[in-house]
Amino acid sequence: MNILSIAGSDPSGGAGIQADLKAIAANGGYGMAVITALTAQNTRGVSGVQAISGDFVTAQLEAISADVRVDAVKIGMLANQEIINAVAAWLDTVDAPVVLDPVMVATSGDRLLEDAAALRPLLDRAAVITPNIIELAALLGTEPAGEWAGVLEQAQRLAQEHDVLVLAKGGHLAGEDCPDALVSTSEVLAEFSAPRVATKNTHGTGCTLSSAIATRFAATGDWAQALEEAKSYLHRAIAGADALQVGGGHGPVNHFVDFFGAGDPMDAWWEDIAGLRAGIDDLEFIVQLADGSLDRAKFDYYLAQDALYLQHYAQVLAQASTLAPELDSQRFWAKGAGEILEGELQLHRSHLVEGQANPSATTLNYVNHLHASNASYGELIAAILPCYWLYQDIGNRLAAANHEAHPYNDWLATYADPGFDEATAQAKDMVRQAYRLADPAQRERMRAAFIRSSEHELAFFAQAHGSE
Ligand SMILES: Nc1ncnc2c1ncn2[C@@H]1O[C@H](COP(=O)(O)OP(=O)(O)OP(=O)(O)O)[C@@H](O)[C@H]1O
Ligand SMILES: Cc1ncc(CO)c(N)n1
Fold first, then answer.
1. Which ligand is nearest to the CA of 20?
2. Which residue's CA is the closest to the ligand 1 atom numbered 25?
3. Looking at this predicted complex, what is its ipTM?
4. Which intervals hold domain Pyridoxamine kinase/Phosphomethylpyrimidine kinase (predicted)?
């Protein structure tokens, strides 16, 4: 799909044609750009504007339509009446759907259009207009609405005046959510809301959203679907904005967040296993271990399986050390393996009555999964992580339930080791580092390995009660 942006240049890359081309590409379109004006701007503000002559804007537009099929047009900054006239005249010669972002002021507050009224003739030519609250009021010649219902009412009025769809944007309202609604002359066609992201890096959100809508409409032929997809994309890009470090003012959104990620998958992975975590908390084994009512034979069974498990776990950590890309991580995993063999296994043995049990099917399944996750370092340590992280998480709660007279007092006391919190934090950092270097397919394999290990953790804790 060939998407044309007609807009101004932002040399800092966060808004204008630079943002448009990134958003178009990130949404699967082929981006083209006719430049209406050069701005001198950065994340702090606009220090200069140099408009292109109307004739040369026409020359650019004609060069494109003489050669390339245009599937959708997004219009941004137009600077002055001469350019508006040039664009309006060219639009009369083409048939592509138009998304018009009536850019008047930058996020920084600087003016980017001489006169709001000049835009009016273009509004009739657009399929969708995407004004923010201030632009919406300016186009109607009225005061900005203070709440969402008022914004919707104004959007419907503008839709009626120009027989277009109006995207009402609630981003400038205070509130925990950022609602957007597609409003026709008679009704709200679709409304999508996203949680407000706590960031000052929102430079170019309007440019990005309108370009994404134009691109997704060209792909789907459905405005409501295009808005839904574009809104969801924009939310991810805003959520990933702080991972970029561009300028000291309002920084740009992270246009390619879906390709290179925001860098830290930990919160999302933890959320992915929320159900498994709740499942572990509810297990009879965990509940009874906490309140002390756990049958000693079941505890011994668990301990014997855990000892068998830990021997393999130490092997897997040693292999992670072998695969580790640099010295720090090599040392970390080797140290972990050593500590298990010297410390934890001894502790288990001291609790075990006598003899060695055979590994259960549950235990074997888990260790087989760990051993089989060695196709890459990233996958292996993602598979290793749940044992650290879940043990630390559950352990903190179990340690809190401990007291002098608790039948499993000495065992629960081992969960209170601050050294284990530190080791878990380090293991998470190792996984973060590997994730940062991984491509999308590898990242997905890492996530899958993490989730699978978490499933095995649940089964492992459940096995003493035969309810895995
Ligand atoms: N902090 C935020 N968290 C989530 N979404 C946001 C946030 N800030 C803005 N948005 C969303 O960004 C989109 C653009 O909204 P806004 O009303 O700010 O447009 P704009 O003023 O035209 O943008 P620009 O800053 O590029 O001029 C809307 O979908 C809005 O909900
Ligand atoms: C060139 C340009 N277009 C649009 C905006 C609106 O954010 C901006 N700041 N700069």
1. 2
2. 107
3. 0.95
4. 10-254
Which structural domain, as residue segments, surrounds residue 453?
266-465
Q: Which residues contact 316 (CB under 8 A, 6 or more apart)?
A: 367, 370, 371, 374, 380, 383, 384
What residue has token string 């390709």?
259
Q: In angstroms, how far apart are the furthest CA atoms of the chain?
A: 92
Q: What's the number of domains the chain is made of? A: 2
Those residues whose C-beta lies under 8 Å from the C-beta of residue 51, and which sit 6 or more positions away, are 36, 37, 79, 80, 82, 83
Write out pLDDT tens, residues 333-383.
999 999 999 876 666 666 665 556 799 999 999 999 999 999 999 999 999
User: Which residues are annotated as catalytic?
Assistant: 169, 202, 204-207
For residue 340, the domain's CATH number is 1.20.910.10
Calpha distance 30→262 (Å, rounded): 24
Shortest-distance Cα residue to atom 18 of ligand 1: 171
Q: Which long-range contacts (CB under 8 A, 24 or more apart) does 84-87 make?
A: 84/118, 84/119, 84/121, 84/122, 85/54, 86/54, 86/55, 86/57, 86/58, 86/61, 87/6, 87/36, 87/57, 87/61, 87/122
CATH number reported for the structural domain that contains residue 33 in this entry = 3.40.1190.20
Angle at 329 between CA 325 and CA 335, to 5 degrees: 135
What is the rounded CA–CA span in Å between residue 343 and residue 250? 51
Q: Are strands 177-183 and 188-195 parallel, antiparallel or unpaired?
A: antiparallel
Please indicate, yes or no, whether the overall pTM of this predicted structure exceeds 0.80.
no
Q: Tokens 């209406």 — which residue? A: 36
Question: What was the pLDDT predicted at 468?
Answer: 42
Which letter, b or e, does each residue of 278-299 get, where b requires 16 or more Cβ atoms within 10 Å of its Cβ? ebbeebbbbebbbeeebeeebb
Q: Could you give the angle at the alpha carbon of 413 between the alpha carbons of 407 and 417, nearest 5°?
A: 165
Ligand 2 centre from 160 Cα, in Å?
27
Tell whether ligand 2 has an atom less than 6 A from the beta carbon of residue 207. yes
State the pLDDT at residue 350.
Answer: 65
Indicate the residue among 224, 241, 259 that finishes a domain.
259
Q: Is 241 in the pocket of ligand 1 (CB under 6 A)?
A: no
Residue ranges for the chain with pLDDT beneath 50: 467-468
